[in-house]
Design goal:
With about 140 residues, the protein is of the alpha+beta class. Helices cover about 30% and strands about 25% of the residues. The chain has three helices and five strands, in the order βααββαββ. The protein starts with 13 loop residues before the first strand and ends with a strand.
Length: about 140
């Protein structure tokens, strides 16, 4: 006797990967291309998801450019989208020794709140080792 077959819809994961110069212009371009890619995947500009991803990419890319910059090396943005399940935002740089973490900024400081925003907007986030060198900050959004 054979067990009954159940039919499940296949899971399609869509991936966008791009390298950018480790400059403020590269960070700005990463944010713009991220929301453009979301629009191509059916999440229009100005929607809640688009605005959330724009803010997360802006913060992570700014951190990669400011704290993870190695002269002559780029940073990388990867979006992994599983429709109706998950969107992962990965920003990778080549600096291994400076790992980000949540630290309360000084009350009058103009900086130090980027990861607090990512923590508030993302379902979860983590810092992963990047082979052969560097680190990846991943922020995930459950859809």
């Amino acid at each position: 006797m054979t067990p009954p077959q159940t039919r499940e819809a296949p899971v399609t994961v869509r991936v966008f990967t791009q390298r950018f110069s480790s400059t403020p212009r590269g960070a700005r371009l990463a944010r713009r291309l991220a929301v453009h890619q979301l629009d191509r995947w059916g999440h229009a500009y100005g929607t809640s998801l688009s605005d959330t991803v724009a803010q997360i990419v802006a913060e992570l890319a700014a951190n990669a450019v400011t704290h993870g910059r190695v002269p002559g090396r780029d940073f990388e943005l990867t979006l992994s989208y599983t429709p109706e399940r998950l969107l992962a935002v990965d920003v990778s740089d080549t600096r291994t020794e400076r790992r980000p973490g949540l630290v309360a900024p000084l009350p009058l400081s103009d900086t130090g709140r980027g990861l607090l925003l990512v923590d508030a907007l993302a379902t979860r986030w983590d810092v992963l080792d990047r082979l052969p060198v560097g680190k990846t900050v991943r922020a995930e959004l459950d859809l």
